[in-house]
Amino acid sequence: MIVSVHQPQYLPWLGYFDKVDRADAFVLLDNVQFKKNEWQNRNKIKTAQGWMWLTVPVLYKFPQLINEVGVNNTDRWQHKQRQALVSNYRKSPFWQMLEGFFEDTFSCQWTLISELNVHVVKKLIGLLGIETPVHVASEMGTFPEDPDERLIALTKYLGGDTYLAGSGGKDYMDLAKYEKSGIRVIFQEYHHPTYGQLYGQFEPYMSAIDLLYNHGEKSLDILRGNGRT
């Protein structure tokens, strides 16, 4: 059984969902340190002028954990993002497919970035048609602070014998700990697919919503068929 773990991100890219899809169980690691100016409160969409950020403003004080970081609702971020989506995707073939998702996302006053991201990730998994069960680390109990020991413990907790790591894990994981614990480690190697987009030349590494807006129910086949080795 393959287990994969990742911090909850905002509107993640395709490689994130490939990692979910390859696993038999996926854990949203919401109780580790928040990383400012990365992917936990922003992601990219395509526009006629290139790409732009969709950013959720946060109330962050180092060294808060992801599930301790508040959303700054004094900023009209939901209105701004809705307008950006209308401006850039209203003419996409599958605009209606995400209407309910964004209505739910933008009509709620989110208190914590982790709650927002868990909602977003779970809903997009459903829209893509991925069936992997999703768990939230902070709801699963107490696990070791050491990063490798934590991942080993989470894998064993879910009955896994294999941990699926991101390709960058080779640079920092202590693989001897996994071997000693009887956990096999495999690494994701995701090659970004090319697909039809609005606005001319293809722009990779956008949020997965870009693929969904352009290809709807065929999105999972594109994610699987063109991006895997």
Explain the layout of strands and helices.
Elements: E1 2-6, H1 14-22, E2 25-28, E3 42-47, E4 50-55, E5 58-59, E6 70-71, H2 77-89, H3 99-107, H4 113-128, E7 134-136, H5 147-157, E8 162-165, H6 175-180, E9 184-187, H7 208-215, H8 219-227
Parallel strand pairs: 1-2, 1-8, 2-7, 8-9
Antiparallel strand pairs: 3-4, 5-6
Concise synopsis of the structure shown:
The protein has 229 residues and is of the alpha/beta class. It is 35% helix and 16% strand.
Total individual domains? 1
Helix tally equals 8
Strand order of the largest sheet: 7-2-1-8-9
Strand content: 15-25%
Structural class by helix and strand composition: alpha/beta
Distance between the termini: 19 Å
Major sheet characteristics: 5 strands, parallel
Backbone CA Rg:
18 Å
Shape assignment? globular
Mean pLDDT: 95
Which runs of at least 5 residues are low in confidence (pLDDT < 50)?
none
Q: What is the element string, with H for helices and E for strands? A: EHEEEEEHHHEHEHEHH
How many beta strands in the DSSP annotation?
9
Helix content: 25-40%
Distinctive features:
229 residues, alpha/beta, five-stranded parallel beta sheet, two-stranded antiparallel sheet, 8 helices, 9 strands, 35% helix
How would you explain this protein's 3D organization?
- The structure is a single chain.
- The chain has 229 residues and is of the alpha/beta class.
- The chain has one domain.
- Helix content is 35%, strand content 16%.
- The protein is built from 8 helices and 9 strands.
- It has helices spanning 14-22, 77-89, 99-107, 113-128, 147-157, 175-180, 208-215, 219-227; strands at residues 2-6, 25-28, 42-47, 50-55, 58-59, 70-71, 134-136, 162-165, 184-187.
- Strands 7-2-1-8-9 form a 5-stranded parallel sheet, sandwiched between helices. It has a two-stranded antiparallel sheet with strand order 3-4. A two-stranded antiparallel sheet has the order 5-6.
- Helix 6 links the parallel strand 8 (162-165) and strand 9 (184-187).
- The chain is globular.
